[in-house]
Amino acid sequence: MWGDxxxxxxxxxxxQSSPTVVAALLGRRLGGELLRLRTAAGLRQPEAAKALTxxxxxxxxxxxxxxxxxDPDIRALCALYGxxxxxxxxxxxxxxxxxxERRKARGWWNEFPDLGDMQEYVSLESAATAIRAWxxxxxxxxxxxxxxxxxxxxDKQFVATRMVRQRRLIDDPQLSLHVVxxxxxxxxxxxxxxxxxxxxxxxxTMARRPNVTVQVLPFSAGSHQGMDGAFxxxxxxxxxxxxxxxxxxxxxRLWVEGGKSAAQHDELFERIAQLALSExxxxxxxxxxxxxx
Length: 293
Known about the structure:
This protein is of the alpha/beta class and 293 residues long. It is built from 12 helices and 7 strands. Strands 1-7-6-5-2-3-4 form a 7-stranded mixed β-sheet, with helices on both faces. Strand 6 and strand 7 form a beta hairpin. Helix 10 packs antiparallel against helix 12. The longest helix has 20 residues. The radius of gyration is 21 Å and the shape is elongated. The relative contact order is 0.14.
């Protein structure tokens, strides 16, 4: 099924690496969900086309995410497919709205050509309503201090893009960030003790924000499935069928766009979060590490 899709990053210079890549991916998410609903209803494209007084070509383009979608068309298809859950219909309409806006928008990331294939991730991040992240070795990018970023890579543009990415977390309280950080990332001395002390103090400060949740998974938790690798889950509505999972592996990046694999990562994140210290315990743990530096 389309909705369970794993793919590598786009080749630079291809259509997917353009500034509208976020719209393309959002369109695919929306189109894939409509395809899933039509298939579940046991209907074919001509029947869907008849409900819209349109051609089967239009339905194919909608399900492929190639065109922006109108709210009346989405409502009509939901009615045809027997979808009555207001939350599901509302989620589809919201995704369509974001998709239409992103197709017309020119994002800040266009001012930083050196982003390379990270352009796709930051464009998605800018459209997200929620981000859940499991980090094994480094601090989450949205919570890194400038000194920590410079210690990782002493490049002015790299630092600048990281700081711009963080603005939305401050300016938009509707963006929810939930991170679970492995103890190893907190203890790794990136830069020097002063840099790490500032980074840990920044973590506790950001954790006080109502839209930010920070948890620590200590060594004492023992072995667990999350040890296989870090990942970010990007949501564009209520977490669930429309999630996109982002993973970095040596020399490459991978995406999981919805379906069973994305759902498995949702479940894995919840299991990791349950193993982790509570928010209050995590705050005390990070503060203790900071004082020891």
